[in-house]
TrEMBL record, chains A, B:
Cofactor(s) named in the record: Mg(2+)
InterPro entries reported in the protein's UniProt record: Ribosomal_bL9/RNase_H1_N (IPR009027), RNase_H (IPR050092), RNase_H1_euk (IPR017067), RNase_H1_N (IPR011320), RNase_H1_N_sf (IPR037056), RNaseH-like_sf (IPR012337), RNaseH_domain (IPR002156), RNaseH_sf (IPR036397)
Signal peptide: none
PROSITE patterns (alphabetical): RNASE_H_1
Name used for this protein in its record: Ribonuclease H
Species in which this protein is naturally found: Chromatocurvus halotolerans
Subunit: Monomer.
Record keywords: Endonuclease, Hydrolase, Magnesium, Metal-binding, Nuclease
Domain of life: Bacteria
Keyword Transferase: no
Function field: Endonuclease that specifically degrades the RNA of RNA-DNA hybrids.
Amino acid sequence: MAKQKFYVVWRGMAPGIYTSWPEAEKQVKGVAGARYKSFASRAEAEAALQSGPGKSTGTKKASKDRKSQASGDKVTAKASRWHEVDIYCDGACDPNPGPAGTGLAVYRDHALSELWYGLFNPAGTNNTAELQGLLHALKLAKSAVEGGRQTAIHCDSRYAIDCVTKWAFGWKSRDWTRKTGPIMNLALIQDAHAVYLELVDRITVLHVPGHAGIEGNELADRMSMLAIQKAETDLVPCPPPFDISALLALERG
Amino acid sequence: MAKQKFYVVWRGMAPGIYTSWPEAEKQVKGVAGARYKSFASRAEAEAALQSGPGKSTGTKKASKDRKSQASGDKVTAKASRWHEVDIYCDGACDPNPGPAGTGLAVYRDHALSELWYGLFNPAGTNNTAELQGLLHALKLAKSAVEGGRQTAIHCDSRYAIDCVTKWAFGWKSRDWTRKTGPIMNLALIQDAHAVYLELVDRITVLHVPGHAGIEGNELADRMSMLAIQKAETDLVPCPPPFDISALLALERG
RNA sequence: UGACACCGUGUGGA
DNA sequence: TCCACACGGTGTCA
């Protein structure tokens, strides 16, 4: 679960994409006017490589800490995505608590199919946003499952997953109460749990590490930021075709 | 046993520290956007007063940034006015982690008085170097204060300042532990905090922006580089007379 | 005590 | 543009 970075070299010894900094550094070290940049996912890097270095938009949060593994090994960005339908959900909240939004990325047969953003909440938390993401991922999953498709949901919030797929059983059996105090975000949890119950034998809900360069998670993350930026209260589709590098360049300010 | 509280007023009628709530309340009552908070000790309050209120409420990033920048400049300019004794400290580490050194520049009555360099550590970090700088600045400050001189320390490491003047209070109260893991550079922090406690009511510790052309900071920076170059493990004075522009022309961080 | 997430700050280097 | 060193807070649960 180490963070894999992808380095685009536009101008250097051998332009291309590299998976470790030492490797990338060789291409740019000592090259006058070298252009290069790191990205969290290969998809992002490939889009950027084709777009060229022109934009200075920069992913502002590129340098969140997580240690990179020693060598340029291939991290399993693929391991968690091998279903007929894969739905990634994410939430953002800036500051936390504060304005919050949700994003979804849907893959069908391993290809990006739809992007959704919205559910803006001017007074949310990171967890309301993540629960909204999971709830709506479940709703999308329901359609897929009813169409006979093998479906998985990928969520980076252990809290949201456990609320809906684990703890909710116990809470419900005690009439949605908890010894230690009121259950936060209860309505959202109840809604999501109800949908989950309908699908429980037919879907997989997986935890994916955040900020690990997993494409679907990164795209859902950007959508959640877009939701905040646009204060979009509905859940609306992002119109195709998808220009990934443009989407990833979205920023507030 | 009623606890004595200390009230910091950052924005109000008359910013400062108050020792009773009625007194503090007068300063903030009816003042739009007033910022204030109570602390358990005067030392904590003073550190907090200098650090600023810390929490942001704004959601508009651009305008917020500009505004806080402007007001931050104002605070700094006001607070950085000359003292009878001004001590600048800095640390360098090249590469980081790696060989590290520390430098100090001391002004007395607005005139450069001494330059110190050393504390070479062949396996340091930027932060060990900065903490060494702050520790030894505090030691120098102690002499000055005991001589009845109004004294300030200027440090460009927010990390070092906060470790010693702010976070150390909480860490000490929890037996020098932290929720999120072990405290790095603990011995250095403990030493510096102990000296700080002796002086807390009689000195000012200020943050200065790095690489901003502030003479004292620049000179301390050159001294820290010199410490690495000479691998000087003691803290030794740079012999006068001082040719400031020649010193500033030395290799810098 | 642990886990996941969401935000924020500064410095040291190439 | 890249790397690394260090830290704070809140949201939530078992």
